User: Fold this.
Amino acid sequence: MIKREKRRYLALEVAGELPVDERAVLDAVQASVMRLFGEYGASKTNLKLITFIPEKRQVVLRCSHIMLEKVRAAIASIMEVNGETAAVHVVGVSGTLKALSKKT
Amino acid sequence: MKRFADLHLRVPLEDQTKTESMIRKASELGYRLVGIPYSPQATKEQISQLRHICSDAKVDFATRVNFSPRTSNELLQSLRRYRRKFEIVAVRCHTKDVARQAAKDRRVDLLQFSATNLRQRFFDEAEAELASQAFASLEIELAPILQLTSYSRIRLLSRLRKEVATAERFRVPITLSSGATDEQLMRGPYDYVALTSLFDLPMPSALRGLSENPWVTVARNRQKLSPDYVAPGIRVVGRRTDD
Assistant:
């Protein structure tokens, strides 16, 4: 039997005062993953945008649990979102959305 | 729960608002100790202001000085003059002589090397062996990894990978610090741990580099700077008062 791929949910917070756009954040994360790990690495991350909470400036992403550390490294190395200087912080990581919502 | 420390928060002392916001940000990100470098010529008011800001933000404050000597004699002079005034002494090694002297001197806590000029990174086996016999740690600043791009970053990561492997082999403690000059360069401890995977630092070592190693350095130096300290293992436990 083929095992189901395990996933991790990450809650990200965009620091600063600039308006946040979920697509721009996802693009920034994907660009950073590509820059650090290339197309092969990016293909293994299985990044997906789950939700966006504008009032908290939070974006929830999903990725493969094997690539979690690499995705975190890519998120930490983001210096720009949508052409504006920004920092993105991981505020919580969990295996389920329910547990993630309790953490953040 | 781990107590994290950032031993190199480069706050602009002349800008109090920015200093406050950076220290508050460090506290929000989960750091319980920050090392803030300032020049030996800084006034007592500036230092007491820093202490006040840190206590408001509920973070411990460790005084730090960064030396950038040109010669080993200059380093020895600086150490003689200022060692007892600061809790952390870091030496930026621009020459091999300075690097070797700093590695074997027990008064030096942190060894720093240039992130941009890789010819000035002298952390090889000989340096690691000297550092392992003294108290010096290899300090790795993580802000340059965020700031540098393309080939400069690739070269830095490649060099760091070699240095980290050497440090692990010779059991030289590694201290990770942000080296952040503004809030945009500050990241949480677990984000920094993830960043260190880029140069193959094992996760337990990375966690130690952000928690145990800096706390041990600061605790040891605080003990040494206390008036009750006599020598390693000897301290004054009480004083007789003649009535």
